[in-house]
From TrEMBL:
The chain crosses the membrane at residues 519-540. Residues 148-283 form the Thioredoxin domain. Residues 288-332 are annotated as: Disordered. CDD domains: PDI_a_family. Its main location: membrane. One of its GO terms (cellular component) is COPII-coated ER to Golgi transport vesicle. Pfam families: COPIIcoated_ERV (PF07970), ERGIC_N (PF13850), Thioredoxin (PF00085). It comes from Odontella aurita. Keywords: Membrane, Transmembrane, Transmembrane helix. This is Thioredoxin domain-containing protein. It is found in: Membrane.
Amino acid sequence: MPPRPPPPTPRKWSNALDMYRKVPTDLLEGTKRGSFMSFMALFAMAILGYLETRDFLSPKVVSDLSLDTNREPKVRVNFNITMMDLKCDFATVDVVSVLGTEQNVTQNVLKFSLDQNGVRQRLMGKNKNQNDIVLSDEGVTETIEELHENGEDAVSLDQTTLKFALHQYEFVFVDFFASWCSHCRDLAPTWETLAEVMTDAAESVVDDTDHDYSDEEYEEAVKLELPVIIAKVDCVNHADLCMSQSIQAYPTLRLFHNGDLYSDYRGHREVVEMTHWLANLEENIHPNKPEEEKKLSSADDIARDRMGVETSRDEMNKLPKRPDSRVPGSTEEKEWIAEMQRHRGRQREVWKDKEHDGCQLSGFLMVDRAPGHFRIQAQSSFHDLAAHMTNVSHEVHELSFGDPGIMRAIERAETNNKEGYPVVPPGTLEATHPMNGNVYITRNVHEAHHHYLKVITTHLDHPALSANRWMSRPQNRRVYTVLQSSQLSFYKSDVVPDARFIFDLSPISVSHRIKHRRWYDYVTSLMAIIGGTFTVLGMLDGMLGKAVGKRRR
């Protein structure tokens, strides 16, 4: 009996593990369909591999949301806004927040006068506090009733008589007032006294001639010799006339020359100050006129005699002499400053402003990081404003938050960027100033646009920014994006409208950063492309084979 063979020894588990078992070549069958599917698989693998490689080599800008950790107590608001129908004399900027209120902000704000076509004419200067002006002449001690006892010299005009006066006289000086206006009531005796001075000047001219006039003829001759007709218009009774003249505040003292608007008077409301202003205008308009024919110069001399002012017109035109020893806060220093303000006012009032209807305000504000608003409104310490004549239609040339130097640095970095991907996500720079170029027009009275601004702190991170030493600091890579909406608001008839910009800083900040893909993520994607393409096309080939086989049967 032959010996038994030894029992088979068990194979090791490592030898049993084989995921890549080979099939003999003679058992495989090649087909045209399989060849075509193989080319399709290789083509798909190449395309997908190229796209995946390009995506791996191209970093992305991603955005993260987090609580805002900005600890700066203030935020800067940059603005450049044109008020289309609001004079620079009345335009003021107020800032209001839950932490406090600042009225008529003057620091870092500039004003430019605009003509009726919106063309910028000249720099009005910084938005300084309105200089205090004398509202009435203390030298006029009579009441308006006492001045009217011998007749009313200031002529009351309406729509028809104003046209006649503008056609008849070279100079017409009109006080547009409202009976309820306290400043107008204070001015009334001074204005009547000014009219009496002009009447006295005309009478002196008539009396110098050898005449034999009757009383009526004498009065007519005096009217013809008036240097300037002093008139007044009650805007309560003649609202249409005042609206046609665009009277926005009371009292408005307006001078007409040869039927056209020449200028508004904004100086001290004293008799001598006004006659001095008129005499200077006469010299500017008629520089070659003989001295004896200058009626307003004669009226100025009469006013000085009547009011007891010893200072001559030439002395008033001279620059005030500075004190030898300037001690801040001293009486001499205060008097010199007051005289300088008067002198500048006289020189400024010579400027003809008949076509200067609008005002462009530009600059920046430092506001609290708290909900609040800033507004542009008509305001005056020396006038009562007509609410129905206040038009705050405006155009926003620029409105943004934060340091404008950062925005310029980002734009330069975007221009010089060689990384192949943007410095900031598309639309981010536009979101920092969404209102730029917008125009907001109010077509009815007692209306104004209010703008609501949600301000979001946005942090940027990009190699092109870090290359700049100044931009390498995190606080210098912070910008503010704005979500904006506007609506038309309606006011009560006695409230002066204002253009209001309401801002609120979001507690959530946005961070834009560069994200690079990991190498193992890329390798995994390549393997998935190769294996997935091979498997899917293999399944497709199998299904096609079965379908063709069934059809042949």
